Amino acid sequence: MNNSLERFIAIKTEDGKIEEVMGKYMYYSLPKLIVKVDKVKEICEAIGFPVEVKEKPSMTDAFRSATSEIHHRILEVYGDEMKVINVYCRDNKKGENDVLSRELVEETLDETTNLYKKLANIALDKNSGELVLSDVDTTSSRDIPAYFEEAKRYFYLYQGCISNRSIETIADKYISTMSAMPISARGHHYFVPRAHMHKISLLEDFLELLGKSNLFSYSDRRDSTYISINSMYVADNEKQRDKMAHEFYLDMAKEISEYQSRIIGLMERGNKSQRILDRWGLKIQAMESKKREYEKILNRNLSDVDDEFSMLRGLYDNFKMSVKSSQIFGAVA
Q1: Residue range 89-117: average pLDDT?
Q2: In this model, does residue 2 exceed pLDDT 80?
Q3: Alpha-carbon distances, residue 217 vs 32, 89, 197, 211, 222 (angstroms)
Q4: What's the CATH architecture for 20-55+164-236?
């Protein structure tokens, strides 16, 4: 949408009043996705989606993703008691360099301590590119060969592909260009300021085309190609500004806390990298810029996070002094 036209957008409220628009509430949800990396790159190029796809999935990535798909919940009756049993794969301790192995385990939930039983090893032979089943518990009543076949099916499906986590990362990188603010609800919910509303349609195109390229299919025949992405206007009134200010504080406090923890971690590990210092300086500047932008959008002084910002700035300054000191003493030496 043309930015000059957005200034004149207005909506009709429940009481019949005409109000200007502050932005849009946007949300999306994804089915289980497995999409070829080359297809994702092709879609990005075709529609001009401005996020570079850097993923180069390896055979090891495919193995980990495939074995992680094995997760079965089983209910069994033992006398008067109903037992809940989970069957899944977990990491093995590192073995030979050319073999990557994971354990297929059975976990029985208990009120005090869960009981674990190893069913088999599922391994990837990196030389042959084949999966191998070994150390099978022949006393188990579980259909271990069926779990192995499930792992093999996903292993071949995942090769050269990315799944939900990578796709969500790509979407999040684009959403960050909208000065969007996450909403504290389960899933992918955002407030997008009016000046960036026009960018939503490109995200819609990107996700909808990804859905059509999904290689995954549900066993119950649910539609695995449909991606739900919707948006609605948010009125520019005092009630909505109060709500958005509350969400801003929640999001900003969480982000500042995370930044503080990570900078403390860098200093505790003795990190002296100028490149990392510069990167964190830009991150903090971007956060402060976002605060100023939202003060204009919400027409209020968002001062409740000033103390947290001061603490973050103090930590960054300490980190900066540490890096500079190491450079000075290093030059003298």
Answers
A1: 86
A2: no
A3: 8, 21, 33, 11, 8
A4: 2-Layer Sandwich (3.30)
